[in-house]
Amino acid sequence: MLSPQQARDIASNLVERGIAAGATAADALYIGHGSNSVQVRLGELEGVGGSEGEEIGLRLFDGQRSATVASSDLSEEVLATLVDRCLAMAREAPEDPFVGLAPSDLLHRGDLPALDAEDASAPTPDELRARALACEAAALAVPGVTNSSGGGASASSAIVALATSDGFAAAYRSTGHGCSAGVIAGEGAGMQRDHAWHSARHLADLDDPGAIGSRAGERAVARLDPTRPRPGKYPVLFDPRVAPSLLGHFAGAISGSAVARKTSFLLDKLGEQVFAPGVEIIDDPLRVRGLRSRPFDGEGVAVHRQALIEDGKLTGWMAESASARQLGIPPTGHAARGASGAPGASPSNFYMAAGPRSREELLAAFPEAVLIVELIGQGVNPVTGDYSRGAAGFMVRNGEIAEPVAEITIAANLLDMFATLEPASDLEFRRGMDAPTIMVPEMTVGAA
User: Which of 50, 209, 408, 414 is the most exposed place for a label (fewest CB within 10 A)?
Assistant: First the structure.
């Protein structure tokens, strides 16, 4: 894997070759990654893995035509062939009035923001093994846990470099550390399984493996002997484990490509009240040590913190250059891409801000409610917002978590859910997409 400076240089050189060969514009993206991981089960080493790879993608433009090619071979001979092949493909591609690089005045200039995304710690396989064993042992020590599906620990790093023919060239490195355990509680047909995991940019920020394991065991045991509630309308609370899925549906609905294709249930909602007053949804690519932090987007556009929902109102779309041109707006700094394809739009550190009431207050807001801790299936229509998913969780009565429930479905429409939901105050930044406990006052609950 190259260093950030080497990656920047090779991307810049490939762009220069593309222009010299006759392309009207060009960009190149290098992605390198490496990881080490250890898996254990029932106290025994089950697997040790290590991987390292790199890929560079070149996009060349011939007027309003473009093509992208990629290679994991960075030899001089292959890169020279890459330029010729990409330009030939671009000249045969259909014209597209919306293709092109991001406007040069929006590109990031100067020093990159300090995101503290790189940790010098490099755990050895023995250290990873010890962490995985400690995590699994803590899970197995929870009374009621009867088996394990394994524990794991990992360490990874990545290099990203981007260069464009408009003079942008930059690279950055990030690292990651993770730990997880999955266990089974109970016996026979009554067995239940659950898991816990945590990941962080810096090893010092990673949860203690024993705490992760205990959490996995306690979750599995709590789900023993589930029942099904009587079908009907219930208030439904989404635990922070699953609440970010609602943000995922929102992000998809405000992507520039979905809006431009008119396939979004939020198509006509720009500037309107989509959520209740007070609700805020933020995208923050510059969060220090954030799991999805980035100093620039996939087209080199400068990034900044944005409130996409402010006091419940939809303030804008997420758009890379192509969909932004279709919509008649500037690119929003949300371009994301792999080496072998054109950019799309995606959020970075995306979260719903905490609300004023505590989780306990939301649990006690109704005499009876359903708390969801697991969602199953993909039953969401992105065009209409119709929502129906399998789920498991717990009944809540008079503010207290009661018996577990499983094999149920929850259904509503996302427009209605968004308009009435309330976030609790228990927001924690633990993923790339985060939300506190979320209460939806009414959903249809039935048998799966």
Answer: 50
